[in-house]
Design brief:
CATH class of the largest domain in chain A: Alpha Beta
Mean pLDDT of chain A: 92
Oligomer: homodimer
Number of helices of chain A: 12
Radius of gyration of chain A: 24 Å
Distance between the termini of chain A: 41 Å
Largest sheet of chain A: 8 strands, mixed
Strand content of chain A: 25-35%
Number of domains of chain A: 2
CATH topology of the largest domain in chain A: Carbamate kinase
Number of strands of chain A: 18
CATH superfamily of the largest domain in chain A: Acetylglutamate kinase-like
Order of helices and strands of chain A: EHEHHEEEHEEEHEEHHEEEHEEHHEHEEH
Strand order of the largest sheet of chain A: 3-6-2-1-9-11-12-10
Helix content of chain A: 25-40%
């Protein structure tokens, strides 16, 4: 008995007709003899409406009541999909978070799944039925409904697949898979058949918004084979798997880029111990997320320049915070620029190949693109460049690493 | 500590502004030091929308899924009212049916409450909080959500009041109480301060649509003092209580009438044992509810005429059923008329007074109104008359029994 978990998002279940279409897709898997659990989001628009009611009732509202209210959205979809499946002759029943149960901690509005008891769902399979599970929700230690935060249905699906030891977790989205880079910028971008968890994780956090970072991390931890595929076309998508499953890795699997970055440089900071910690402490206190950091010393070694990046939404706040600390930090002045983009090459093959970063630097140099900041991880090299070169850089790198689709 | 249960229907919680108004009404009771449980319906229109989705998914749908879907309506209201109360500084939390728990049988879509565990709500009171309970829903023996059927929120409220041994159950409606008769027909109709369960039960089943018959029966069984009052005005309503609470009963408390009746007469039925059972068996089989029945013998004693009433919606079906059995029943012919009305006088005082029915007959005779069928119970006399005399009869009886309001 092969267990498959399938997850359909808000657009895929946007109205009753679409829910009926989802039922047809599920039936195909059932007809193949699979045991299927389906995780559903709220019908698109419903969550926003319910959140709107909460805000209308009180701008600051009890997160526990918020959870009870918005969880109604997925509750409705799970019942409707069960009915639609039954109408096709497929035996099915709905499960709410508390009925599975999907146990979470008590951080209402952004709960973390702690344990899923697979017994009720496995019993449902044993009776030859499809289990339709309301995504995004669970039950807290106090017996009250919790929600996992926006995008939590992906996490519900992956966690359920792990608990059920499912063969695969299929995430249906409005794109048909994961691409080597954004096809809107590089027409020769290819859909990948497979990608490793680590690569997907880097790409997700770098702006490829196909899967929530959180669900990829969960899939990696529990080695859940996760497929990203289209809700609207019946085509294989991209399988996110463990490195072992991929026989020969590409050195670089994909090129990611992330706009909405801003660069801040603090010029002339006295080069004394503890000064760097002092620079970043007030930013952390204000929950400003700092990404890339580089430090360069002046010629005489008495002062340094520190450059870091933050989300462009946070740039003004970051500058205010640093200005308020000018006397303590004793820097000379601040420079900043939000007209920058972070371009990254990602690939697990980097670990066993040398000269990968060099190819990136050479390629950008050939095109006359200046690199402002560099940061690297084991499977990624990121550079900050002027935003106007985004397309040029991404296309050139895509070609340089041999990712272009053949005609 | 006085416990009060308050129930607000769909119109009273029709939008977030109205929910905020309900919160204000609840706060008044809390400020008096009462422990308050509030039972809420779905926002008006929401249940119909959810039922519409179910029908769109499949005309014949699983009642268990239907229950999970429509229960979302009350779930949303209970969370929103809790938020609105908190916004007024009143500590409150929502309870869904399964959280109380309100245990029901497994008749999905029309479940009966079997047991309510009061502990969680009493604990909530002990913490100084208002309990906001989603009406209309419970949990079945299989751990799935059940609903009590339309109007079930009144039943939820009365059952909860019984379980909590509440001082009173306040049912807020769009009328301000129970009247001696319909004020649209009799301008001199008076709002009653008190009415007995038995009288309310007769009036509810006779067409005074203030309270569901089912919730009155439950209130009577558990002696729950139930008040019917207006959602929109801050005035005392009508208290439905045990007979012992009313020091001096009116002989007749109210005049009820019910349109939508039809009379069927089967003429010339052989007067042999078992024939009456044979007449009503096919009607029962078709779930046709027969109300009043009279039988009159012919002069020679060989045949009888049987007259009975059914709902006017059922008249044509009743006639078809009886026509199909003509050979077995051996009657001569059928006569029928749906232009009739049932007028009833109701009052527990009848038990200890004689001549009450006589006043009714005399009053109708004076106005030249012919009585077609009579039926009586311990606290009620009903007559079937021609529909065109409805207003005349109700007004005359209202005066004859001394019910008219003083100017």
């Amino acid at each position: 008995m092969t267990i498959i978990v399938k997850k359909f998002g808000g657009t895929s279940v946007g109205d009753v007709d679409r829910i009926k279409n989802v039922a047809k897709r599920v039936k195909i898997a059932v007809d193949k003899g699979h045991s299927v659990a389906v995780v559903v989001s709220a019908m698109s628009g419903v969550t926003n409406q319910l959140v709107g009611y909460c805000r209308e009732a009180a701008m600051l509202h009890d997160a526990r009541e918020y959870d009870a209210i918005v969880a109604a959205g997925e509750q409705i979809t799970s019942g409707l999909l069960s009915i639609a499946l039954q109408e096709l002759g497929v035996s099915a029943r709905s499960f709410l978070g508390w009925q599975v149960p999907i146990r979470t901690n008590n951080v209402h509005g952004a709960a973390r799944i702690e344990e899923i008891d697979p017994d009720a769902i496995l019993e449902c399979f044993a009776e030859g039925r499809v289990a339709v599970v309301a995504g995004f929700q669970g039950i807290g230690p106090d017996g009250r409904i919790t929600t996992l935060g926006r995008g939590g249905s992906d996490t519900s699906a992956v966690a359920l697949a792990a608990a059920l030891k499912a063969e695969r977790c299929d995430i249906y989205t409005d794109v048909d898979g994961v691409y080597t880079t954004d096809p809107r910028i590089v027409p020769k971008a290819r859909k990948m058949n497979m990608v490793t968890y680590e690569e997907m994780l880097e790409m997700a956090s770098l702006g490829a918004k196909v899967l929530q970072t959180r669900s990829v991390a969960l899939a990696m931890r529990h080695k859940v084979r996760t497929q990203v595929l289209s809700s609207f076309e019946d085509l294989p998508g991209t399988l996110v798997v463990d490195e072992d499953e991929i026989v020969e890795n590409q050195v670089v699997s994909g090129i990611a880029f992330s706009k909405g970055e801003a660069k801040v440089t603090m010029v002339g900071v006295p080069d004394v111990p503890g000064r760097m910690a002092a620079v970043f402490r007030p930013l952390a206190k204000e929950s400003i997320n700092v990404d890339m950091i580089v430090q360069t010393s002046s010629d005489d070694g008495t002062t340094t320049d520190v450059t870091f990046t933050v989300g462009s939404d946070d740039m003004n706040r970051a500058i205010s915070v640093l200005r308020a600390s000018k006397e303590t930090l004793e820097y000379d002045h601040l420079a900043y620029d939000d007209n920058v983009v972070k371009v990254s090459i990602v690939g697990v093959g980097m670990r066993s190949h040398t000269g990968v970063a060099q190819t990136m630097f050479d390629t950008l140099a050939e095109k006359g693109i200046n690199i402002q900041v560099i940061s690297t991880s084991e499977i990624k090299v990121s550079v900050l460049i002027d935003a106007e070169y985004t397309e040029l850089a991404v296309r050139a790198l895509h070609t340089a690493y041999g990712l272009d689709a053949e005609d």
